[in-house]
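User: Okay, second chain of the day. Same drill as before: sequence in, structure tokens out.
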Amino acid sequence: MNQTPEDESARRRRLLTLCFLAIGVVYGDIGTSPLYAFREAFNDVHGVLPLRENVLGVLSLIFWSLITVVSIKYATFILRADNKGEGGVMALMALAQRGVRRVHTRWIVMVIGLFGTSLFFGDAVVTPAISVLSAVEGIEVLSPASVHYVMPITALILLGVFSIQKHGTSRIGPLFAPITLIWFVTLGVLGVFGIMHDPGVLKALLPHHAILFFVHNGKLGIFAMGAVVLSITGAEALYSDLGHFGKKPIRLVWFFLVLPCLMLNYLGQGALVLSDPSTAENPFYLLVPAGLLIPMIVLATMATIVASQAVISGTFSMARQAIQLGYLPRMQVLHTSNQQEGQIYLPWINRILLVLTIAVVFGFRSSANLVSAYGLAVVGTMLMNTLLVVIVARRIWRWSYLRVIPAGLIFLGIDALLLTAVADKFIYGAWFPLALGVIVFTIMLTWRRGRELVMREIKRAGLALEPFIASISAHPPLRVSGTAVFLTANPEGVPNALLHNLKHNKVLHERNVILTVDILDEPVAEPEDRKSVVALADDFYLVTLRYGFSEDPNIPAALMAVSQCGFPFEMMDTTFFLSRESIVAGDRPGMMLWRDRLFEILARNATSATAFFQIPGNRLIELGTQVEI
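Assistant: Same drill. Structure tokens below.
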């Protein structure tokens, strides 16, 4: 069908709107990297001297890193690996698992995806701290005596950022894009004026300067490249926010606004250092005219708040996906907008991030120290993304080995070089986000394995459903009017709640529904796959509801749309029965005892299934069952 001029005009307006909004959400993190990335090549523990060949070499490395990692790997290659429009490590893991069949291979894909997700959580603690801290440190340029106020001001700003999360970003969200747009334009303008200090800095765009940098500095050059890694932190946001904006807006904004403005600013800082090597101490703020320093500090602080907000929101989304896919215990998920489903708030995650981020600020004390903790988790996440997307290219896209192997080796080679560059930072602070990642990884693996063991015990001790229904038909108990819905994860067995109800109350309802909820490995379930109903004997029905990992299950609303169970569901005539397992750590084979106890603690503090599935409390009967693992 041909589009009318009005349709084409509406399409363009929507594209421009998405591009505008993507500026604030997608590029907040990578957009604040000029605050600290370039200076750290000369200030780090492995920094090089601000000589001309070194300045040109670092700038060349930054430029070609932005081209190869962000422009080619993420914007061109990885953005293709969308899971029905959704991005992020969890979505990519689910997509890769769909393409493999062997249980062992699926387990390997799961470990890769979970480790990448865990590193993202570790990075989410460091990113707000280093972003806001580096912006506030601008007051030291204005007044060196104000150094004692940097950490308290940073802590207050971060406290405010995390405090407003419960209100959602729908009110302040429209400000994000204008602030970030002004920020990028300012970066570009400052860069243009900075280049005038030494126009010869433009030679840094030639790749041979990057090669000469390693020739001149040897091993030191490789470790100095750890500062270059800081210039690409936030690249994973291009893929993580894919579901919010789509590929085209993300690519357009990167190639026509963000990349040019970032590179202009880096070149401007480089030209300033070439004209005066002493400015390598803080070339970003020294690039700003003295009369505009205060407004620039304010703008930089606002930009870092936007960057922090984007990372925090991304963490909420990642945690919800992990919960839905069964890798984290159920937590309270609050929606902060009636218009946008993606705007959510997880109180527990927010509290944990707040405490850890403030601790990071006071523990590392400066952005220069914090830089040592930054980068390793980011590169680790990028490496996991590469491994997963190679699997997707082979198994889902059906690329031949002649295409997969060269592309995989190139991207893995780049990741390996970046990982080598930041590996030495482990003892200087990079252990911290990595340790956080290992803790999250252990929790997710333990929760997943623990649920499998619980299911094993339930199946072992349970009764088969069909023989049970046959015995009910042969010896019918007393029936009462209404509908009973029994939630269970094992549709082949008799729910414990059904057995307890029959044992203690000696009755069955007129209609009994055995309900199972499945979470699919795709973001949204197709309407035709949403539900399935199997009519069993004696007014028993086996109902399966399916949801994507980006959806919030609402069982009452879904049941109202089920018409294959004899007669419609009336909520006032329906009672939900749920068996709540009480976990007891034991010496049975499965996990080590400390992991059993960890799972016991997680299960005890998980949000109840009734709240998670939005079941009204006045229609619920919950029966406890003790399960030893």
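The longest strand covers residues 507-519.

User: Thanks, on to the next one.
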